[in-house]
Every structure is written in C-alpha cells, then in structure tokens.
Amino acid sequence: MTDASSTSVNPAMVQESAVARFIRSTELDTRVLGMVAAIIAVWCIFDIWGYLRLPAGTDSLGGLFGGAFLTPRNLWTLTVQTSSIAIMATGMVLVIVTRQIDLSVGAMLTLVANVAAVLQVQHLAPALGVGHWSIWIIAVIVALVLGAAVGAFNGYLIAFLGIPSFIVTLGGLIAYARGISFYISEGVTIAPLDKSFKVLGGGVPASWLGPFWSWSLALAACALIILGIVMGRRQRMRFKFPLRPVWAEVFLAGLGSAIVLGATLIVNSYAWPPRLIEQYAVANKIPIPPGIEDKDGAAICMAADKIVRCAEGYVLYTGYAIPVLLALVVGLVMSFISTRTLFGRYVYAIGGNPEAAELAGINTKMMTVKVFTLMGILVAISAIVSSSRLDAATVSLGDLNELYVIAAAVIGGTSLAGGLGTIYGAMLGALMMQSITSGMLLLNLPSPWQAIVVGGVLVTAVYLDQIYRRRAK
Amino acid sequence: MKRTIFAAMAGALMLSASTVVANAGTVAVSWKTFQEERWKTDEAAIKAVVEAAGHSYVSTDAQGSAQKQAADIEGLIAQKPDVIMIVAFDSDAILPSIQKISDAGIKSIAYDVQFEDPNALYITFDNVGVGRLMAKTMLEKGKTEGNFAFIKGDKGDPNATFLFEGITEVLKENMDAGKIKNVCETFTDGWKPDNAQKNMEQCLTANNNKIDAVVSENDGMAGGVVAALEAQGLAGAVPVTGQDGDKAALNRVALGTQLVSVWKDSRVLGKMAAEAAVALIGGTAMDALPGSAKFSGGKKKVEMNSILIPPNPITKDNLGDVIDGGWISKDEACAGVAAGSVPACG
User: Fold this and answer.
1) Chain B: nearest CA to A447, how far in angstroms?
2) Which chain A residues contact residue B192 at CB under 8 A?
3) What phi-psi label fits residue A189: left (phi over 0), alpha (psi between -120 and 50 degrees) or beta?
4) Crossing angle, helix A423-442 and helix A401-411, to 10 degrees?
5) What is the pLDDT of residues A298-349, one digit of tens each?
C-alpha cells in the first residue's frame, strides 16, 4: 500500500523498465517475490544436491531434479512440519509490530498441550469412556480458553502493571513449561491421546482431506480469489482510487488460481503409504490385486519385515492435511484482521508511534492485552497441532519454539523496532526455516551443520531485508 | 485387645533391637536434591535394607546446592557414621568433602553420580552397557540385518555419544559384514520427541520407507519415531529401541510398536548400594564386594572400586518385571493391548 502511493508520485515513471512497470501495475510486493524466489531456489538446490549425492547408476528419488526434496511426499510433510510454527508466527508478527515480544510462546505451548493431554487421557477418557466423541471437542475448547487466559494474563501484566514484555514473558518461559506443566503432568509423557484428537495433527488417514474435498476446496478458493479481485476493483471505482490495468487484474486472478490449483495438484499426487492402503483396504473389505513378491514389488511395497500384499493398482491420495489447512485458515484470518479491521489498524498505529496512537485516542493498554490474548489463542492452536501430531504431550514439547517463531517473523520481514511486518511474510519465514532443516535432514548432513545454517540464514535474511528497505527509500 | 498386641509387638521390637545393638552401625546419605521425585524411591530402597540389617539411617538434603552439600557432609561426619553415601550435586566441588570423610576414617560411596576419589566406592548403572543392551536386544529379538536408522540424543550431551559407542560396538560385526547399513544417523536437539519425529520423517522420505530397524537412544524419542512410523503404516513392523522405562514406552512395548525399553530400576540401585554399605560395616573390603571391579572411565581417569549394575531390557516377554515391581500398573502398561498377545497382560 505504501509502495503504491510512493510510486504514483514518481516523476520518472515514463522511463521505468518493463519489469518495474509490471510490478507497479500488478502491485505485487517485491519483498514477498524475493522470499518466494529464495524458497524455491532452496528447494531446487536440495533436490539437485540429493540427486548428485546418489551413487552412480541408481535411479532418481522421484523429485523434479532427481532428488527426494521436490517430491509430493516431501512437500506434503514439509508443510505439515511447518504448520505449528507458522500458526504462532502470525501472532508474533502483531506482538512485535506493537513493539513487544513474547518469549513465553514455547512454554505456553507446553502448558496448554499438557493440560489438554492430561484432561483427555486421565480425566475425560475414564469418565466418558475411551474414544468418546465429545473428548476431543472438550479438550480443544479447554485448550483455546486456557491459551487465551494465559495470553491475557501476560498482556495484563505488561499493559496494566507496566512490567516490560521481555521480563513478563521471560518469567513465563521459565515458569510455564518446567514449572506448571511439570506439576500438572508430573514430568511424565502423556500418551496416547484421543483418536479423534489425533486427526488435528495430520498423522492418520482421517486427517487427510482426500482428493475430492481438496479439489472442491481449491475451486472454491479460486472462485473467492476472482470474486475478491472483482469486488476490490469495484471498491476502487467507488472511491475513485487509481485502478490496476485490466491485464494486471486478469494476471493476478490467474496467478492466484494457478498457485492454489498447483498446490492442490501436488498434495493430491501424494499417495497414501502402501501399508496404510493395505490396512484401509482390509478394514473396508476392498479386494486388492495380488502383489508382486519379487524385488520390484519390494521397491514399492516393502517397508517392513515381509511383503504381505502389495496394494498395487489400488491407490489413495492424501490431499490437504488438517494442520496445513488450519495454518492456511489462520493465515487468512490473521491477514484479514491485520489489514482490514480497526483492530489491525490500531496495532500498526501503535507500532508506528505509541505516543501518537495514545494521543489519538487508542486505548493502547487494552490493545496490548488483546494482542497477547490473540497470541495465546494461536499458541493453543499450535499446541493442539503439535501434541496431536506427536500423539503425546511432553514437558519439552515447546522448548525453543519461541526462538523459531520469532526467527520466522523476523525472516519474514517483521521489524523488531515495531510498526512493520506481514502475516504472509512470517509464514513464508517459517516455511523457509523448516525447508532448510528438512532438506539437510534428507541429505543426512551432520546436525551441527543444520544449526549453523539456520542461524546463518536468520542473520543473512535480516541483513538482506535492511538493504532492501534502504533501497526502497 | 489391640493394646496388648501393640505392647507385645513393641516388646518384640525392643528385644530384636537389643540383640543387634552389639554391631549396629550407621549409614548416612547426602542427597543432592529431593525436588526430583526419583530420589525418594532410592531412599526407600536404601532405608529398607539398612534397617533390616539392624543399622540406623540418617540423611540430609542439599537442595541443589554444592555449598549446602559440603556443610551437610560436615554435619554427617560429626555424627560418626560408618559409611556415607553421596549423590554429588557437583562432582568436582564435592572432592574436598570426600577427603574430610576419608580423614575421619569413614568409608564413602559415590551413588549414581561419579566423583573421582580413589578411596570411594562408585555404584551406578552401567551406562555404556545401556547402548550395548539396546543393540543386543535388537539383534536377538528385532533385526540382524537391513537398513538401520540411528536417532541419537542431543549432541551437547556426552551420554548420547557414550550410548552410541555401546550400540556400534555390538552392531559392528554385522555392519562390517555389510549386513547392517547405517542409512540415517542424526543427533536430536534437546532429546526432544517432536524433533525425533521430524528426523524420522525425513529419514523415511530419503529412503523411500526402506527402513528395517530404528535404534533410538531413549523412550521419549522412540515416541516421536513411532509417531512417524505410524503415519507411514509401519508402526509395529519396524522394531524401535529406547531406554528409561517411560510409562508411555512400556505401553508401546506391550502394544508391539516398540521393541525394548532398557530400564534402570532405581530401587535395584538403592538395594545394591545399601547392601554394599552393610557389607562395608561388616568389615568387607571394597574390592572384595560382590560385583566389585576397578573403574577408571571418568574424566580424570582415576581408578576406583566400582559396582556397575546391568540394567534390565524390558521387552514383551518380561514386561511382568515392571508390573510386578510396582513401577507401572497393569492397566497403564496394557492399555489397548489385545488379549493373549502379551504374557504379562493376560
């Protein structure tokens, strides 16, 4: 938005290059384009590297360039692995934008996950019977309420008692996980969790949308994108704002739809693991063609001690996983809140200049409480996702998550000085970090290197961001 | 009626006390902290053996402070016990206190935590042995060949490396013969189960699910590994190791999704240490204690008399050990287990 206003007064517009004109017309955020390009580059590098490391004469691993990275399976797993951090990063953006910090998110995640787990395993299951339909609903509601309460408590201490957020949440970091969670769970791993609750983590067949609903959802999303662009154009006409050229509008609608359809195509080409297909087929009495029990058959079906039956010819595809959908929905809702609501405007106003915001009549104290409450709710969603994914709650579950969340927000362009930051940037930041960790794991690189590279990327990303901002001025 | 029985019992007790009073001694223990629940379990085991032998038991709690522990030990020396057992909070800072114990002619036992003083007896579980036991159980009851994944603990923790040394020592023969292929080997930050899950997911992706066995260095990480295997429908088909006797892990052992959890029963440790203390009071020399051997594997390579207790690998076959020992209830261990599949679950 600020880009548009600054370029419209640019007197040198006539001499601008085709690329610049294209970017100005489509109003694409060049920073995001840079991030997306960087992520795609990282993906390609890992895929090519994976192929080059293969011993001569072996087949490709199925990736675009022959590695294991650019395969539907890895991209699917990657997005599931990213979802928990990405969800929290959207809230951290608002926290940092208001010039605060929340160091307690990891500990809060541990606390919420342990309370939800103890509740369902030690209280609800014995009282209602194991696997009762209401267990997961109660657990989710309690988790969200607890997250909101802890977040609001943090916010209250910061806003009304005037304790710096760094200190309040540092205290939370120490107290919530190792203290309160340990007290609640007695330091014991709480597992296994409720069967329906597990669906939220993406590890079981019921947590996959399947191709039909994935395509339906994708088409609905495309329709919404086109509708959004048409409505946006009408709004601009109504208020006599400068319009994008029609070709740019069409291009944006096409690009958005292409991304949605492409992503759907990828998740819909990840087949269920053969063993799960077998289990599903057996459970539902679906006849399976007899498998080939030679070495070729083993390549497809072997994953265990013996080849029982190969589910060749009978394939199921996963589609979107629930945690990824949750993250996408959270991203959309948070983007909407931050850019289209009064609340969002106030957040950026406070971040830009807290004194001026207060003088303008914004109740900055209540805003702080609200921002931290929102953070708490998002932490609760992440707690649900990560504990159900692991099918267990442990006292170390959220350890160091605060640092990954803050790093994701910062890599995504959130300024620690406040006032600047986008939701989608932070989510892309989370994806970037997880891509690097997952990619290095795929290559079986020694793990000290993972730590070195992730740390290096954090610093480099912020440096590049600074350069970009300086040049943009 | 009640009263007469009580009186009779009291009389009998006094009588028995007076018969052993001739050679009654005192065992003192300096605990590093009672904040962690486990030390209470150890204490109960020690106390039971010491009192059954007719000796008395005294103890102090250092509350997680090296300074308080030094003062505690001075106080204990003043009470002139025969043996002082120490769970050192800081294995270096404790050394001057150990010297004072020796100077007072009192015998010292390093309990569970080593400090390097040649006059002390060191009693602990055989930690390198845990790794060996995992690998041994894997070979005996899991897989002897194929693609192995190794999920190691935190790279900052020397135990992760010790364990791995023990593991590779046992698997070496099959690895050299090309039977076992190390396809993934990764450290796990903070020994965190969720990190282990991610590591295992990537390992499965990189090898297109062609993993035959997973050696995980503890139970928590084994939980993450099993979650990753479950998402590929492989839980139960791929043997997974672990250690600690976590309740969730013992349940997985019963369910068949985890092969083994190597269990270090702190009550066995307490019992062995207390028996050693009793023998020392009786005049047995340190190097003549049953199971005693020379140990010099510490940081400074000081040679000490030591008793290294072998841990107990818990598999489906001996799950009864943990249930009978009262470590876990049958309901907890056997939750969700099909009838007849595990002997201990019935």
Assistant:
1) 6
2) 394, 396-397, 399
3) beta
4) 120
5) 333 433 333 344 445 567 888 999 999 999 999 999 999 999 999 999 999 9
Lowest mean pLDDT among A12-21, A150-159, B61-70, B323-332: A12-21
ipTM comes to 0.83
pLDDT given at position B3: 53
Would you tell me which CATH number, out of the four given (1.10.3470, 2.60.120, 3.40.50, 1.10.3130), belongs to the domain A71-208+321-472? 1.10.3470
Give the start-end residues of each E strand in B296-342: 304-309, 312-314
Query: CA dihedral in degrees (B140, B144, B150, B152; nearest 10)?
Result: 30
Contact A394 B211 (CB under 8 A): no
Residue A204 contacts B where some CB pair is shorter than 8 Å: yes
Q: Is the pLDDT of residue B6 over 70?
A: no
Q: A residues 369-398 near B, CB within 8 Å?
A: 386, 389-392, 394, 396-397
> Which sequence spans correspond to the domains of chain B?
23-126+266-311, 143-258+315-345
Distance (Å) from the alpha carbon of B270 to chain A's nearest alpha carbon: 22
CB A189 within 8 A of CB A393: yes
Choose among A203, A399, A442: nearest Cβ to B231: A203
Residues of B in CB contact (< 8 Å) with A are 37, 143, 155, 183-187, 189-194, 197-199, 201-203, 205-206, 208-212, 219-220, 223-224, 227, 230-234, 237-238, 246-249, 251, 336
A304 touching B, CB under 8 A? yes
pLDDT of residue B17: 45
CA distance B197 to B212: 17
Q: Give me the phi and psi of B123, to 5 degrees please.
A: -120, 125
Mean pLDDT of B271-295: 91
Claim: this prediction has a pTM higher than 0.90 = no
In chain A, % of residues over pLDDT 90: 58
Topology classification of domain B143-258+315-345: Rossmann fold (3.40.50)
* CATH code for the structural domain at B23-126+266-311: 3.40.50.2300
Query: Can you give the pLDDT at residue A119?
Result: 95
- Rounded distance, CA A161 to CA A374, Å? 19
Contact A392 B227 (CB under 8 A): yes
Q: What is the mean pLDDT of chain B?
A: 88
